[in-house]
Amino acid sequence: MTTLPQFFCYVYDAPGRTPQLLALEADTFLEAIRETRRVMRGESGADVFAEIWDSSQQGGQVTRIDAPPGGAGLLRSIRRNRPFSRSSRP
């Protein structure tokens, strides 16, 4: 029986919040890095990062991926795209 490596990541997008746990569709570590960067697209900030966990390494290996500079950020995108109701406008 062959065991394939399993990759998953935690995305920390705000201090003090519970990180998002995501299973990555990747067969190699490089694919896991690409998938993590794709998931983090649009996130930015000094406090935004992800940790990739590689189960193929003995004891597991953790690699940190920082968010790229200049992204819009999830929270700002939600606020910007939220529709306004007539009663909420001044």
Describe the structure.
This protein has 90 residues and is α+β, with helices and mostly antiparallel strands. It has one domain. It has 2 helices and 4 strands. It has helices at residues 29-39, 74-81; strands at 7-12, 20-23, 49-54, 61-66. The protein has a 4-stranded antiparallel beta sheet with strand order 2-1-3-4, covered by helices on one side. Strand 3 (49-54) and strand 4 (61-66) form a beta hairpin. The longest helix is centred in the middle third of the chain and has 11 residues, at 29-39. The protein is globular, with a radius of gyration of 17 Å. Mean pLDDT is 71; it is low at 72-90.
Q: What sequence of helices (H) and strands (E) makes up the elements?
A: EEHEEH
Strand percent estimate: 15-25%
Number of helices: 2
Which sequence of strands runs across the widest sheet? 2-1-3-4
State the secondary-structure class.
alpha+beta
CA distance, first residue to last residue: 65 Å
Described by the principal axes of the CA atoms, the overall outline is globular
Q: How many separate domains make up the residues?
A: 1
Number of strands: 4
Low confidence ranges: 72-90
Major sheet, described briefly?
4 strands, antiparallel
Could you tell me the mean pLDDT?
Answer: 71
Radius of gyration: 17 Å
